[in-house]
């Protein structure tokens, strides 16, 4: 496999200013704070996390719609800077959450889909019109739809139009920023299936952004879980769903409704709101909501550590947390935290014996 996208230590800080005339900086929003990941050719990496954790900012940084405060983005081995930007603009496309906001309401759908080809000087007027019809077919729409306006379509159809537009210039990577979050569940599945289909046909790579894990289950090869501007766990999809290690990943998993209604509500969802990225908590940013919090978590920021093949976790206590199933049964109760203390003590005794 070859690496298509490589993101290293990407950071975006926004200064927060106060005052109108002599504005002075009163703080910094750490929207994205040292994010690294890579996407192999033909692979789907999902980024998952609650609203406000920096997913869209990460997407905009990769697309270079905004300038990073720090870090690098390499596409197909080349660092993205001024000169490389033009090829990036063609080879990386984006599909947004709200196609209605991203489609020009006054343009016929055919012109909207043809626009990126025009911008990049691809084809003639006639060949572009033919390509639009082909693209409409690829996303399950009909040639005559080219003459219609966005308001004449349903939400799911509008998202298909957005996908056709993204496909028009034959990109290698498509960034999908919550492409199905605004759609009914039944329609979500259709759009996800369409994206998977297109991936198989054209060998596409996806950076697929979602705020809940259920959506990425059918889509992702690997998952990166974000919290307050940082990646807290990244692993192959299987491991994320079968052996989640970070308490936040576990909480996101528990938030997925259980298929058996009798077991629903047994698991306590994650309490409290996401703290502000302007004043992120000290130490581990998740410590204010973590059911397993210990003193060390408040003082020392955990780094990502590889704890299983391809699975990296930023938690001081990931190895000694009680098994995920036990926690789910106990609903993240104080019992679980108590058990953690017991596990930790046992581990310390074992280490002392070995020494
Ligand atoms: P997500 O897509 O995960 O919901 P975003 O990337 O949109 O999150 O935002 C991350 C954080 O950065 C949020 O707290 C948001 O308010 C803040 N933010 C985003 N854009 C700006 C901006 N232009 N100026 C200041 N803060 C911003
Ligand atoms: Mg967003």
UniProtKB/TrEMBL annotation:
GO MF assignments: ATP binding
Bilayer topology reads: Peripheral membrane protein
Q: Which Pfam families match?
A: ABC_tran (PF00005), oligo_HPY (PF08352)
What keywords would UniProt list here? Answer: ATP-binding, Nucleotide-binding, Transport
* TM ranges: none
**Compartments where located:** Cell inner membrane
Q: Where is the ABC transporter domain?
A: 5-253
Query: NCBIfam families, alphabetically?
Result: oligo_HPY (TIGR01727), PRK11308.1 (NF008453)
The text of the family note is: Belongs to the ABC transporter superfamily.
Q: What is this protein called?
A: Dipeptide ABC transporter ATP-binding protein
Q: Which organism is it from?
A: Falsiroseomonas frigidaquae
Q: Which classification does the entry list for the species?
A: Bacteria, Pseudomonadati, Pseudomonadota, Alphaproteobacteria, Acetobacterales
